[in-house]
């Protein structure tokens, strides 16, 4: 499960360009912490890039070439010794990497791209291609550090690419060893954003993906939701009267009442990517479809939340969601029975809330019209 932080939430909800916020945060940490600067210097040294220890970092450095790198490290003479360009899902600009390389001195300057781990191979290949088009020869060399690529130009300049994790982990280790809690807390916020972007980065489409039959599973998972809901209703465990099925980007499901408690049985690919390896989930919204009995609901689900591995997670909408495990290698009827049994277990836990089938106050009998589940 990725490290969700307040900074990540705000950056992705209100920031049109999260890369800018991430690089601003990185610059802030490097300017404030000598330990962070040393960690970056040592990481780069490990891939053959030597930079002075006294670099002064500045964000968004414009120049006469109309390029504006995200983060630049200046030496004592004011030379741009290190240029760091951060990416999440944005593509390379027309200035990258050639214009940025032209800014560097030919006696040890380095250009480093930071990207999600899923894009390391793709972006590195494109950087090399653009250098080749510009008649810049880059001699690649191997490194034992995961998600790191490096190359040297014949004149002493270096080109490198690292994942966000490869960059931030060494900083975190250095701060942890020195017990620098304040800077470490700042790094946790930045790491949370990077992990979220890493998980959500757009992966290049392959021909194999376009021709595989694996995506029929998403349709089959949606049908499993319908079958389980029907079976629950036939057994008198669920009531779907007046409740609707809804779908959106990455999810489809149906609202229902289990033992009088409002729930949502859903095939949710977003939760699959975020919380646990299963596409099927049961979100619990309480008797009144609000947070008024949230504490009691969580107490009722405590045995599942404390299980190993945990079965209950708090979704982005603030309500608990239960992971329903899909049997592997089983026929359809066995899968349906297993899912049905798991939902009945949850329903039995919720029965301890003492909910009634039709609560007072008709306005709370169904979820709000604009309700949609969040991962």
Biggest sheet descriptor: 7 strands, mixed
Q: How large is the count of helical segments?
A: 13
Helix content: 40-55%
Number of domains: 2
SSE series: HHHEEEHEHEEEHHHHEEEEHEHHEEH
- Structural shape: elongated
Computed CA radius of gyration, to the nearest angstrom: 26 Å
What is the SS-derived class? Answer: alpha+beta
Number of strands: 14
Q: Give the N-to-C terminal Cα separation.
A: 12 Å
Strand order in the largest sheet: 1-2-3-4-7-6-5
Average pLDDT: 87
Low-pLDDT runs: 355-364
Which strand-content bin applies to the residues? 15-25%
How would you sum up this structure, described in words?
By secondary structure, the protein is of the alpha+beta class. It folds into two domains: 6-200, no CATH class; 216-364, Yope Regulator, Chain: A (2-Layer Sandwich). The chain contains 13 helices and 14 strands. The two termini are 12 Å apart.
What's the helix and strand layout?
Layout: H1 6-14, H2 18-32, H3 34-46, E1 56-59, E2 71-74, E3 80-86, H4 98-102, E4 110-115, H5 120-133, E5 138-141, E6 148-153, E7 158-163, H6 164-177, H7 181-200, H8 207-211, H9 216-234, E8 238-239, E9 245-248, E10 251-258, E11 261-268, H10 269-274, E12 280-286, H11 294-300, H12 302-305, E13 312-314, E14 320-324, H13 332-351
Parallel strand pairs: 3-4, 4-7
Antiparallel strand pairs: 1-2, 2-3, 5-6, 6-7, 8-10, 9-10, 10-11, 11-12, 12-14, 13-14
